[in-house]
Amino acid sequence: MAFSFDDLASACAPDWNAYIGHEFVRTLGEGTLQEDAFRHYLKQDYLFLIHFARAFALAAYKSRSLEDLRHAHEGMKAIVDMEMDLHVQYCQEWGISEDDLAQLPEARATMAYTRYVLDTGNRGDLLDLHVALAPCLVGYGEIANWLNDQPGTVRGDSNPFDAWIGMYESDDFQASMRAERAWLDARLAGVTRARFNELAAVFRDATRLEIDFWQMGLDRAF
Predict the structure, then answer these.
(1) 93 has catalytic annotation
(2) C-alpha to C-alpha distance for 94 and 44, rounded to whole angstroms
(3) Active-site annotation holder among 91, 136, 142, 180
(4) Which string of DSSP letters, residue by residue, matches 60-116?
(5) Degrees to nearest 5, angle at CA 74 with 69 and 78
(6) Whether the predicted pLDDT of 83 surpasses 90
(7) Rounded CA gap, 54 and 140, in Å?
(8) 220 or 85, which is more confident?
(9) Which of 12, 91, 180, 210 is catalytic?
(10) Is 12 designated active site?
(11) What's the pTM?
């Protein structure tokens, strides 16, 4: 049997669905999310992106082929050279300065997920690392598509969070999501059932930690 990303999502369907349709996501789409909850999430997401870049640096170290090394390099370059600047600009639109971001304390949910990803990558191989990152790399694109399918989602100026949806429904992000799914599908296709079960456990745990990250934003928790 050839496994794929869809099999990972199916293996933890209740958690995956709870992540995609979390109250934070749903109310963001409806435009009813409390703005201070969204600001708290934005601040912590800045810290997450820093560790995300570190994860791609680890992916470069773990790469055994030039193709994978280039993939890791491009991922880290995109975060450091583009996504971080875009995130800082977006935070400024929400009244969060770059100085504010530089002095942020790290919430426990941020520490839990980012350190889980890095620990998984350190003790496992490149596929373990990508599977741990998949709820973010693939999930945010899936969430944007899910929101656009919901009858309660409000688009345009009447939703203060419309630009956030726009970032993840963009052609560039959707292309990145499809590329990551293809990378995972190509490597999952050759694993044994026992190995798939190990990877499914990583994906489940990472998805649960992403759920906690949404909840952290909703609760304004540290």
Answers:
(1) no
(2) 14
(3) 136
(4) HHH--SHHHHHHHHHHHHHIIIIIHHHHHHHHHHTT--HHHHHTPPPPHHHHHHHHH
(5) 150
(6) no
(7) 19
(8) 220
(9) 210
(10) no
(11) 0.94
